[in-house]
Amino acid sequence: MSVQPSVRRLTAPQITARKGGEPIVSLTAYHAHTAAIADPFVDFLLVGDSLGMVMHGMENTLGVSLDLMIMHGRAVVRGSQRALIVVDMPFGTYEESPSEAFKNSARVMKETGCGAIKLEGGTRMAETIDYLTQRGIPVMAHIGLTPQSVNVLGGFKTQGRTKDAWAAIEDDAKAVANAGAFAIVLEAMAEPLAQRITEQIAIPTIGIGASAACDGQILVMEDMLGLTGKVPKFVKEFGQIGIAIEAAIKSYAQEVSTRKFPACEHTYAMKDD
Ligand code: KIV
After folding, report:
1. CA distance 86 to 147
2. Per-residue pLDDT for 259 more than 70?
3. What separation in Å is there between the alpha carbon of 49 and the centre of ligand 1?
4. What CA–CA distance (Å, rounded) separates 243 from 83?
5. CA 207, CA 34: separation in Å to the nearest integer?
6. Contacts (Cβ under 8 Å, ≥6 apart) of 263
7. Which residues pair with 186 in a beta bridge?
8. Residue 237 appears among annotated catalytic residues
């Protein structure tokens, strides 16, 4: 019996093979229906731990649990068919030891069906990245502004603003690439530094507030849709969904307050039944 799906998903090695080629398109996704809408247009969808802030109103990403990531990861995998799905490892689930990271990453992959995980950190995470990739877990790295370290960084600040900080960040990029990461997110990083890193490493760089020289870009979907209200300076809002939702809810509230309730002709007929 064949269990081949009708549409083949992109894989981590296919993303790596795009280094220096056609730009890699990606977005975050947290639920099934937005994943389904984005799926035909993106190469990968990241179930980012930013969901703690965007969906759950947290102040930062530190309170996000593994169970929460798994719940949203499953929804995004169910909603999509073609994009590679990458699930973020939340704070406290991978830093302590490579074996702890393996246990938790393997759980994420088994329970969500995702194709890769992402973790934050450069040189300090190289041993763990090597350990995971040797054991069948594709890892996307993430350096520059790493939001899980917000308390050490002293805020959500652009990294590499002065040239004397560049060498350490370049070393981070090389360390995770050499350890076997299949791609690397460069977040909120000085533009020339992101360009230098992109030129120096053999895996694709995915920029978010970094450089147009990166091999691809990722944005938080709700930010680029105009749903979150307050967005970082580099984010272009491609829609005004928040305003559209507000207008629709206002009309609804007006109709209900004048007792314009839609009547149900049959049991529960759908529009295209
Ligand atoms: O959690 C997230 O959404 C991320 C992206 C901003 C890269 O890590």
Report:
1. 17
2. yes
3. 6
4. 29
5. 22
6. none
7. 143, 207
8. no
Going through the chain in order, the beta strands assigned E by DSSP cover: 24-28, 44-47, 84-88, 116-120, 139-144, 183-187, 205-208, 216-219
Number of the ligand 1 atom closest to the C-alpha atom of 120: 8
- The model's pLDDT over 163-188, given as tens digits with 9 standing for 90+, comes to 999 999 999 999 999 999 999 999 99
Nearest Cα to 203, choosing from 172, 180, 170? 180
Hey, which CATH number is domain 12-239, 1.10.940.10, 3.60.21.10, 3.40.1360.10, 3.20.20.60? Answer: 3.20.20.60
Q: Where are the domains of the chain?
A: 12-239
| Cα–Cα distance list, 139 to 90, 210, 271 (Å) | 14, 20, 43
Q: For atom 8 of ligand 1, which residue has the closest CA?
A: 48
d(CA 217, CA 23) in angstroms, rounded, equals 8
CA of residue 130 to ligand 1 center, whole Å: 22
Question: pLDDT tens digit string along 108-138?
Answer: 999 999 999 999 999 999 999 999 999 999 9
Angle, vertex CA 229, rays to CA 223 and CA 233, nearest 5: 60
- Spacing, Cα 163 to ligand 1 middle (Å): 25
